Amino acid sequence: MKKQIKALLLLLMATAPTYAQIGGIEDSVNEISDTIRVIFPIILGVIFLVGFLFNAGHFFGENADLKKGITRVLVFVLIAGAVVGIFTYLITLVV
């Protein structure tokens, strides 16, 4: 019986510091998520701009292929939309 009580006390004392650390971790996660929320639209805008510039060659110039250009832009927009959707879903989760 004494061994069980000692084991229980040891377990309780070992887990007590982890409860004290949760507040600090939560604050850090909130700061990081706030930073990501501010930076993400800027990064996404740069990605859209770079993607358009890479695909602009299909619309203009000597070897212009309108169908290929539109197809690539649509695929790019679908992939970027999926990334934005996943990111938006992850932001709405409560940390």
From TrEMBL:
Entry keyword annotation includes Transmembrane: yes
Leader sequence residues: 1-20
UniProt keyword terms in alphabetical order: Membrane, Signal, Transmembrane, Transmembrane helix
Transmembrane segments: 36-61, 73-94
Keyword Transmembrane: yes
Source taxon at top rank: Bacteria
Protein name (Swiss-Prot/TrEMBL): TrbC/VIRB2 family protein
Organism listed in the record: Pricia antarctica
Lineage of the species this protein comes from: Bacteria, Pseudomonadati, Bacteroidota, Flavobacteriia, Flavobacteriales
